[in-house]
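Predict the holo structure. Ligand: zinc ion.
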Amino acid sequence: MRIFDPHIHMTSRTTDDYEAMHAVGVRAVVEPAFWLGQPRTSPDSFYDYFDALLGWEPYRAAQFGIQHFCTIALNPKEANDPRCRPVLDELPRYLAKDRVVAVGEIGYDSMTPEEDEALALQLGLAVEHGLPALVHTPHRDKATGTRRTLDVVRESGIAPELVLLDHLNELTVGMVLDSGSWAGFSIYPRTKMSEDRMVAILQEHGTDRILVNSAADWGRSDPLKTRKTADAMRAAGFDDDTVDKVLWRNPVAFYGQSGRLDLDEPKPDEESSFQGNSVRRGGE
Amino acid sequence: MATLGMPASVPPDPRTVLSRHPLEPAARSWLTDAEARIAARPDAVRALFPTARRHCGRARLDAHWTADEAARAVLLTALPLTGAPLAAELAGLFRHGDPAEQRAVLRALPLLDTATGAGGEPLADLALPLVREALRGNDSHVIEAALGPYGAARLPDAEYRQAVLKCVFQEIPLDRVAGLDTRADAELARMLADFAHERVAAGRDVPHDIWPFVRAHPARAALTERLTAETRAAAPERREAAERALKALR
Ligand SMILES: [Zn+2]
């Protein structure tokens, strides 16, 4: 089984996680730029974070046979902090990078005017750079927030099929699929969405334009939730081809719209025609 | 320090290599146009440099160049800058570059070091901060590029030795490291011999490519003595590692 986790924050995970993910079939991931739990107080902290998403993390992932791509953006939470806003001006420099396959995570957290502005501006950047957009939907007041997000997406002029709305649930999936955008589901150990509820959603709404992710990060989360959902799908009678569509072909189709999802990319070790690194051996 | 200021060797001219292995027509015209734009307005390189791989691909052209690194080298040599302004532009590209871009900057340094243009200032040591930053990192591909001809010619002795030892730790084969033929000295041999002893004491194997650099120096005799003592160690894997190392050192 091949699995593509379209939303996972590997920066917060250990090499044990990479090993376990590879063992259950994960071969590619997208790591969206998001907030780190601890607020950042200067734009420079973001640039170092973006550099890690483009450099160190893909390097680490490659040691475990996993392809790592990322999305870059100023996240909604920190869009409210005037100290972080200058990041918006530097984004074009990062959106030009080969491994950036979307603008994200953008969207709403508390639905403030600052978030409105950052969302609209970054949807514009996605259009300008020919990139898809990964849009986070708020955890509080989710249905209203999702509806408002869809309005802003419509006004921005970005094609709906270039937009993925994430962290959806039973009450928001319908309006997103109706809009022509992609629907993402984060399978968490306790909150948001479980494997069994996910299976019920697939039974009701079909498997077109639907993505499943672990959204694993520094909080209580499980990087193997993609595989556990695949297993739940099979137990519920979905065939292998449908499982492959949801867990691999759908994310490839969505992020492939960037023209930068180079899944044949040689692993760094092959590129330099020698084997060796300091991660596998426990560092220097 | 007789080698300082003299590049250890200059890589093949990327323009010649690219003409021998022609790019697709669309890639070729992109590169020609990009060169002209950079020659006319140097800061155009900031937007063009990151996209070079998407336009030119990453096929291997010869033992030294891949298409993307050769194309990026062409873009950098098109910069109508020398001396400090050139170093500043390179520093910006390196600072904002992903690892592939950083590697491309480092691999182009020997070409930029020799091209001083009419009345231009040489690059000299001005790009050494980039080499040093790369050497502090952990990405083998970037580290390997940092210890190319430019870094090998210009790093002070102590830093050069530390960099070589770091390559050994990163398992970068030493035949990929520039400058060893002129810069490997008795102190580097001592450091490598200590490293070998440390590995043997842990019951581990020693990378075979360090031996030529130990053999040529007094460190050899001292290490032979220490390894001989290790063959009487209590732990069998330690004794066996010592036997293997002694055999390789001979
Ligand atoms: Zn997230």
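The pocket of zinc ion is lined by residues A 7, 9, 32, 34, 105, 215 (CB under 6 Å). Chain B has 15 helices and no strands.
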